[in-house]
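[agent] plan:
  1. take the single chain provided in the ticket
  2. run structure prediction with default settings
  3. attach structure tokens to the ticket
  4. add a short note for the reviewer (M.T.)
[agent] executing step 1
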Amino acid sequence: MRFTCALKTVAIGFALTASGVAFAQGGGGGGADEAKKAEAAVRAQDNAKSLGSDLTPKLPPATVPADPQNIWDLDLSTGGRVRIQLRPDIAPGHVERIKELTRQGFYNGLKFHRVIPGFMAQGGDPKGDGTGGSTLPDLKAEFNPMPHLRGTLSMARAQGEDSANSQFFIVLLPRMQLDKKYTVLGRVIDGMQYVDAIAQGEPPANPSVILQASIESDGKPPVLAPPPPPAPSILPSAPVKKPVAVKKPVVAKKPAPKAK
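[agent] step 2 finished; step 3 output follows
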């Protein structure tokens, strides 16, 4: 019995081997064609999986955990501190530039020189007219899939893609047409009301100012704007009375004594 089973096993193995050779050589009639189709289908499926894994873009997370080492604090003259979560995972070079200039004190005292309602507030220019920058070299673009939503921090640039330097803008309302044309490097996580209050204009008549920029892990306390001067009194002033001339009393002269 064991010998018979062994012969059957050998026979089955030989049949499978022979069938495989026949398929590979193109023989075997209709069965061979079916096997070819099956083999082609498997290869096509494997190729599709391979291409899919290679071509499917891996999107960065929409948000990341708050990290004080990557939070940019802007104390504005509009009344408070704006906290911006920087994203070194999508724009490492631009985030490093912001940190470097911030720790140099570069942004302290700079104005928001271009503020368009419903669009964005732009700052970071030491000249205050949109033509200036730092002494550091321009940055290579780091365009990424992150959208320009309300509160997005993005880097301003000139015509060239690799011309960003120190200027930035904060988006006031979504502007998707800017996506992948400007480098997104963060988003406001607190204090957006102070961004909304930035004076509008190109340039504004009375520009809002960055009182202090800092990295949150450095632990700098907020800098508050000085209180506004007291408003002038609107009460009507009391009429000024003219001084009344006081007449001196007339003193009658005594007659001189007569000589005796």
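[agent] step 4 note for reviewer: Residues 69-218 form a domain with the Cyclophilin fold (CATH 2.40.100.10).
[agent] ticket updated
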